[in-house]
Design a protein that fits this description.
By secondary structure, this protein is an alpha/beta fold. It has helices spanning 2-17, 33-39, 72-79, 98-101, 104-110, 134-141, 154-171, 179-183, 194-198, 201-209, 222-227, 229-239, 284-305; strands at 56-57, 62-66, 85-87, 114-115, 120-124, 146-151, 184-185, 188-189, 217-221, 251-254, 259-264, 267-269. It contains 13 helices and twelve strands. The structure holds adenosine-3'-5'-diphosphate.
Length: 312
């Protein structure tokens, strides 16, 4: 009962004391990581929220914004190997769900883990990348925030997206149409299938680039993260200006799972069984249509970000 009461008191204190928008620090450029951290630290404003060991909740200084099924959980888990990273456990859906956003930054803060002042707080909500309202809202909170975006081959992402929803239905013992039923309408590729739209990366990226310069968005190659995670994670460490503390020995390939798993202080763990599931077999001609459909959008995306990816 006592911890419950204390939690309620702390939450009320936060809601009253956290400004609806934290101070924006002008000139907050990549060379000034300390400013970024201080801008997003509300410790001073909410002494009641601080734990006795000096830790406190902080607004995230970096967010994994997506893409859904890009490998966002793997990225978060791998980044959490770093001692200076504190990650929110669940997807917070603050910027994309009105019922959360309307509760203000005090609520958002209350969802964050307790962390030491030198630690970076990170949350991941994959739906942010494809939600039109989100870039402006994130910018309103902190224009100097560093964003992580993990992408994979757009066609593969569609299959992964389908597989996830398929298993959600299986769990609830509900029937679910085959992937062909979603992908084909009147003998043609059904471009209204939502999963296709989520893979039109250039459209969503344009929304983000209206509010953030490209240098604030680090794109993780999700296909490479599957094949060889360590180099991708090293790049993330550099982007976040973290000291290089994650090692190749933190990763080992698990033949049974068919994916890399994590080794942390002698503890081995793989991602949940819902990550890395087999995708449905799709007729090669239909798959080809899918690859063709993404050809032009991919080119546009590569131009937008000044970089190419090894996608079909
Ligand atoms: P599949 O399950 O379709 O293979 P997200 O966490 O954004 O939902 O992404 C899930 C995807 O992460 C998985 O999609 C899988 O391919 C990918 N992934 C990347 N690294 C992984 C790892 N080490 N273990 C399991 N899945 C991983």
């Amino acid at each position: 009962m006592a911890p419950l009461l204390l939690g309620a008191v702390m939450l009320v204190a936060q809601l009253q004391l956290v400004p609806s928008r934290p101070a924006v620090v002008p000139g907050n450029e990549p060379g000034q990581p300390e400013l970024v951290r201080k801008a997003a630290t509300l410790q001073e404003e909410i002494p009641d929220g601080a734990a006795p060991n000096g830790s406190a909740q902080q607004l995230p200084q970096t967010i994994i914004i997506g893409v859904r099924k890009g490998g966002t959980r793997a990225l978060l888990e791998m980044l959490s190997l770093h001692p200076d990273v504190a990650a929110a456990e669940n997807e917070v859906h603050f910027f994309d769900w009105e019922e959360h956003y309307s509760q203000g930054l005090g609520w958002y803060l209350s969802q964050m883990p307790f962390s030491a002042p030198h630690q970076l707080t990170v949350e991941k909500t994959p739906a942010y990348f494809t939600s039109p309202k989100v870039p402006e809202r994130v910018h309103g909170m902190n224009p100097a925030i560093r964003l992580l975006l993990i992408l994979r081959d757009p066609s593969e992402r569609v299959l992964s997206d389908y597989t996830q929803v398929f298993y959600n239905h299986v769990q609830k013992r509900k029937p679910y149409p085959s992937i062909e039923e979603f992908l084909v309408r009147d003998g043609r590729l059904n471009v209204d299938y939502k999963a296709l739209n989520r893979s039109l990366y250039h459209l969503h990226m344009e929304n983000w680039l209206r509010f953030f310069p490209l240098r604030r968005i680090h794109i993780v190659d999700g296909d490479r993260l599957i094949r060889d995670p360590f180099p991708e994670i090293q790049k993330v460490e550099r982007f976040l200006r973290l000291s290089p503390q994650i090692n190749a020995s933190n990763f080992y390939f698990n033949k049974t799972k068919g994916f890399y798993c994590l080794r942390d202080g002698g503890r081995d763990r793989c991602l949940h069984e819902s990550k890395g599931r087999a995708h449905p077999q799709v007729d090669p001609r239909l798959l080809n249509k899918l690859h063709e459909y993404f050809h032009e959008p991919n080119k546009k995306f590569f131009e937008l970000v000044g970089r190419t990816f090894d996608w079909h």
